[in-house]
């Protein structure tokens, strides 16, 4: 057993801990202290003596079995209130007698709720034992485990139940229906693995767990009305225990915080603000065709502006509100037995889908087709005066790197005259009009306009995932690469017609921040977002306010409003406040190191709650290694706060090649494929262990997904410092991924630009973990979604077979029906538990959880 975590847990739970007698410590712990409500009077329903269709009457035990309140939402501490029919009941502490029995008042048919908490530092098997005179039900984590329904029993009824509990915090709720006689009960727990592996407590405080990550209401995005007075906020929540979820939108008055309208449970889609007036538009389907409506929520009037649009896809309002540009599209795929591919992309399911643009005149309802042909046309922007639109087409072209060509056109929507702005651009860009319509703001990679935007030092090829901004003059066709010396990578941008500044969301190392760019001074200014990671932002049509959703490294996503004039922000929605109120987080801090060439590799550390530097801790090293950094976001695929809550120190580092550190740094990703990355991870891990005496150097694990899964595999061919390694959806053979993955060869344009299996075997073969499998000595877990189209399942299969044939310690777990990301609610919980159980086996010497999940079978 890991004594380190037990000691830390004992400190955390020092308040309100209740222990059994010393004689019980080695075997069983009786729950002696409880939080209990005042007595609640219950009444039998009308006609309770009348038999129902099954011949049953309503008895006292049925009162106890009724769930009058949601037990999952009860998590009280002493002196908290429970609202019962508008009566405020107080949770009070009550202790058992010397024999461990808790006595309740001898009042006839009174309901009592009792709560206690169990905290365990490892997965375990437990025996829950009950002795009770009154009617009673015992719940653990919301699930009924024991019950006794004999009323006014002369002797205590005994029962027991075996439980299997995961590491962490568990809630025990007891419901008692009293009688006029003896109302005593005793509840005890015994661990079948380690008597000291759990503690009993009256505190609802707990560490992060997977349910705290997944459950609760999440704020997803905001959209502001034209004057910035109202916000359309998008929310989602899971619906456990099912795999379903719910998504909805609400309109909030920003000044008062009042919710004016909610679109919950409706069949409305594509809800958007109009550019003028406080109105929204939305779509609804009738008989498979789409209608568009406008609703003025101040006048409370609705108007249908068009109907019967077949194959509708999306729509955008013109800035003057007089027309809509919408797109329709459908797939040209056929039901086939034999298929001749019309190019490399034709194997992708969506390749034969085509979409085209239409114009809807709102006043007359006239619909006109704007584009036609064999290539999809995509709307880029609508000019402020409503006269012109920008749209793009793109096509594959295998004649030269980077194999895709983009055309940008301007169309006068009154005359339908089309003007080509650029043709056959090698690196595509997203374009929008300047407020006066004379320039374009273009977002693209460093090579979007050739060498003019590249600031990559001596590297031959840029990483074109590193977003840049350009101002393109329509008359002169001159290009100004405004982010040439700006290191953060651009995610999104908008040109404000009010103050003529450009507002930007950009990846700044492992932060995502908001910036403004002044056209006159050519200076970037960071806005105070009061957060670590901004997920999305929206500028009001009048240019006065910005709405955005953002989080901190240890705080969930919230919706904010930023006032451009006062440069202040405030929170308008924090739906997870109550959901996370009892969660305790450990300390986080930056930890960087400098390589011999002078490069600083940044990283950060997550410490267990109530960390004790005098103890020894196992270490988990996390990374991505691909072309983007691992942001300081809350939750995510690998919620590192949760890993630290499991008793690990977590070290995350950002190796060379990531965007957000400047173009030269990101260009290191090209034609590297992990060698520099892996060596930096090894170097950083060794330095971290050396500089931190509380790390157990023999208990170090590593984990990564996708390119990070490849990195996990590659690391084990170059070092033996890890005691366990986990690769999710990892690439084992760069060549097979290049050819089979849906994004294989297109991703390689930014990973191995101008390099191929036939001219760079030193990369595709020599640097592939599969061809170095004999060097691996570290125990490894391979995880993979069975329907992964990005990194095909075969990447894990072939590594598993190689390591098995070599007699290595390897496990392979598939997640049925999942793609590159594990998104199914219940499967994600199982997937996370698989990771925790594997690390517990190798980094904590606790194999029971893994053995329970995946027992060996004699096949």
UniProtKB/TrEMBL annotation:
UniProt name for this protein: Dipeptidyl aminopeptidase/acylaminoacyl peptidase
SUPFAM superfamilies: alpha/beta-Hydrolases, DPP6 N-terminal domain-like
One of the Pfam families matching this protein, by short name: Peptidase_S9
Entry's transmembrane regions: none
Keyword Signal: yes
Molecular function terms from GO: aminopeptidase activity; serine-type endopeptidase activity
BP term (GO), one: proteolysis
UniProt keyword annotation of Zinc present: no
Signal peptide: 1-23
Domain Peptidase S9 prolyl oligopeptidase catalytic, residue spans: 641-845
Record InterPro entries: 6-blade_b-propeller_TolB-like, AB_hydrolase_fold, Peptidase_S9_cat
Keywords: Aminopeptidase, Hydrolase, Protease, Signal
């Amino acid at each position: 057993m890991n004594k380190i975590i037990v000691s830390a847990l004992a400190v955390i739970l020092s308040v309100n801990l209740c222990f059994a007698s010393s004689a019980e410590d080695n075997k069983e712990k009786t729950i002696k202290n409880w939080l209990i409500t005042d007595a609640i009077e219950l009444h039998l329903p009308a006609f309770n003596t009348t038999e129902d269709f099954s011949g049953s009457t309503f008895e006292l035990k049925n009162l106890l079995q009724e769930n009058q309140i949601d037990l999952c939402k009860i998590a009280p501490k002493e002196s908290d209130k429970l609202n019962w029919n508008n009566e405020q009941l107080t949770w009070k502490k009550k202790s058992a007698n010397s024999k461990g029995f808790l006595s309740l008042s001898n009042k006839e048919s009174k309901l009592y709720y009792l709560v206690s908490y169990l905290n365990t530092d490892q997965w375990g098997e437990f025996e829950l034992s009950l002795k009770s005179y009154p009617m009673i039900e015992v719940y653990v984590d919301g699930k009924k485990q024991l019950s006794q329904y004999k009323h006014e029993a002369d002797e205590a009824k005994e029962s027991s139940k075996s439980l299997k509990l995961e590491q962490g915090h568990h809630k025990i709720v007891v419901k008692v229906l009293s009688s006029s006689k003896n109302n005593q009960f005793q509840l005890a727990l015994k661990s079948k693995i380690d008597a000291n592996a759990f503690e009993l407590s009256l505190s609802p405080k707990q560490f992060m767990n997977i349910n705290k990550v997944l459950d609760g209401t999440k704020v997803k995005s905001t959209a502001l009305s034209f004057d910035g007075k109202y916000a359309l906020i998008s929310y989602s929540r899971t619906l456990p225990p099912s795999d379903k979820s719910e998504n909805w939108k609400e309109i909030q008055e920003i000044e008062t915080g009042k919710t004016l309208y909610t679109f919950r449970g409706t069949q409305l889609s594509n809800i958007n603000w109009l550019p003028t007036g406080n109105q929204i538009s939305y779509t609804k389907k009738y008989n498979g065709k789409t209608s568009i409506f406008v609703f003025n929520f101040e006048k409370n009037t609705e108007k249908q502006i068009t109907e019967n649009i077949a194959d509708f896809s999306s729509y955008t309002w013109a800035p003057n509100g007089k027309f809509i540009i919408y797109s329709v599209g459908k797939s040209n795929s056929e039901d086939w037995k034999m298929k001749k591919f019309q190019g490399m992309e034709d194997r992708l399911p969506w390749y034969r889908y085509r979409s085209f643009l239409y114009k809807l005149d709102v006043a007359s309802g006239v619909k006109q087709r704007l584009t036609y042909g064999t290539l999809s046309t995509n709307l880029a922007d609508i000019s402020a005066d409503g006269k012109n639109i920008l749209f793009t087409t793109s096509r594959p072209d295998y004649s030269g790197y980077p194999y895709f060509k983009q055309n940008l056109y301007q169309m006068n929507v009154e005359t339908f005259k089309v003007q080509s702005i650029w043709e056959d651009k090698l690196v595509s860009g997203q374009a929008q009009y300047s407020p006066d319509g004379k320039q374009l703001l273009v977002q693209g990679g460093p090579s979007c306009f050739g060498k003019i935007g590249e600031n990559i030092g001596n590297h031959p090829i840029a990483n074109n995932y590193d977003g840049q901004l350009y101002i393109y003059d329509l008359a002169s066709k001159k290009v100004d690469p405004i982010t040439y010396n700006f290191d953060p990578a651009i995610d999104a941008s908008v040109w404000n017609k009010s103050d003529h500044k450009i507002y930007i969301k950009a990846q700044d190392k492992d932060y995502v921040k908001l910036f403004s760019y002044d056209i006159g001074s050519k200076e970037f200014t960071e806005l105070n977002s009061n957060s670590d990671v901004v997920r999305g932002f929206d500028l009001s049509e009048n240019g006065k306010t910005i709405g955005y959703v953002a989080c901190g490294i240890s705080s969930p996503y919230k919706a904010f409003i930023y006032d451009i004039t006062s440069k202040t922000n405030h929170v308008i929605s924090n739906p997870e406040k109550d959901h996370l109120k009892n969660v305790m987080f450990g300390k986080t801090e930056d930890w960087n190191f400098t390589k011999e060439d002078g490069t600083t590799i940044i990283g950060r550390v997550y410490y267990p709650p109530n960390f004790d530097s005098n103890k020894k801790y196992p270490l988990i090293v996390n990374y991505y290694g691909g072309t983007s950094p691992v942001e300081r976001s809350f939750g995510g695929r690998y919620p590192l706060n949760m890993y630290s809550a499991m008793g690990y120190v977590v070290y995350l580092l950002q190796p060379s090649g990531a965007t957000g550190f400047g173009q030269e740094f990101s260009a290191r990703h090209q034609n590297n494929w992990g060698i520099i990355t892996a060596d930096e991870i090894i170097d950083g891990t060794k330095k971290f262990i050396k500089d931190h005496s509380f790390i157990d150097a023999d208990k170090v694990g590593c984990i990564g997904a996708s390119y990070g899964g490849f990195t996990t595999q590659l690391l084990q061919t170059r070092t033996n410092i890890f005691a366990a390694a986990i690769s999710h959806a990892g690439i084992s053979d760069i060549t097979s991924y290049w050819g089979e993955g849906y994004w294989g060869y297109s991703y390689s344009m930014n990973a191995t630009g101008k390099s191929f299996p036939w001219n760079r075997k030193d990369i595709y073969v020599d640097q592939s973990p599969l061809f170095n499998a004999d060097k691996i000595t570290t125990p490894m877990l391979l995880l993979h979604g069975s329907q992964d189209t990005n990194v095909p399942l075969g990447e894990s299969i072939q590594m598993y077979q190689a390591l098995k044939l070599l007699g290595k310690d390897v496990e392979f777990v598939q997640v049925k029906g999942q793609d590159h990301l594990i998104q199914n609610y219940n499967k994600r919980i199982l997937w996370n538990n698989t990771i925790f159980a594997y690390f517990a086996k190798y980094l904590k010497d606790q194999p029971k959880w893994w053995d329970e999940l995946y027992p060996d079978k004699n096949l």
